[in-house]
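Exercise 7. Given the encoded structure of a 171-residue chain, write a plausible sequence.
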């Protein structure tokens, strides 16, 4: 029997912090038209700095609300989780994932103003060589594998009965 993905991510992963919905108003410091909307604000875990989030490199993360796994995701590239976390703060009017998460937070949880706790697992890149037919040289490359790991963990979690309601793939 496989370990439950929902338990394994939170016990083997690094606690990164949490998101909470907050009210945001645009253009408060000028005379331009403003509007207000809810957005997700990330709060880093105690002792975690931005540089720590970046140094994790490519990761797979789990989001939990009321101790329930609601999303498996990935982050990578030069800024890793630090960059991915910032995209959750984007105006939900133009970001379908954020709209979906905020809708579920408001409608599907008994806790008033629930927090989304995030745990991340580093997924090292694969080192390989590639023969470039253009330069006729063999070069060293590193390939990310966090996308494949995210897909695998999502599939297994769903097979284990998890309802990953924040995943955009689910309708």
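Solution.
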């Amino acid at each position: 029997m496989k370990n439950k993905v929902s338990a394994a991510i939170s016990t083997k992963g690094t606690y990164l912090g949490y998101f909470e919905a907050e009210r945001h108003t645009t253009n408060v410091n000028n005379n331009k038209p403003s509007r207000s909307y809810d957005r997700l604000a990330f709060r880093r875990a105690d002792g975690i700095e931005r540089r720590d989030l970046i140094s994790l490199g490519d990761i797979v993360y789990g989001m939990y609300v009321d101790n329930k796994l609601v999303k498996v995701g990935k982050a990578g590239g030069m800024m890793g989780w630090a960059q991915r976390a910032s995209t959750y703060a984007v105006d939900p009017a133009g970001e379908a994932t954020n709209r979906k998460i905020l809708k579920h937070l408001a409608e599907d949880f008994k806790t008033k103003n629930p927090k989304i706790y995030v745990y991340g697992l580093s997924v090292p890149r694969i080192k390989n060589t590639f023969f470039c037919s253009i330069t006729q040289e063999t070069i060293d490359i590193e390939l990310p594998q966090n996308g494949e790991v995210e897909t695998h963990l999502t599939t297994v979690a769903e097979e284990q009965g998890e309802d990953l309601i924040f995943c955009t793939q689910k309708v």
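Remark. Helices lie at 5-12, 50-55, 80-87, 96-107, 146-159. Students should compare their own answers with the one above.
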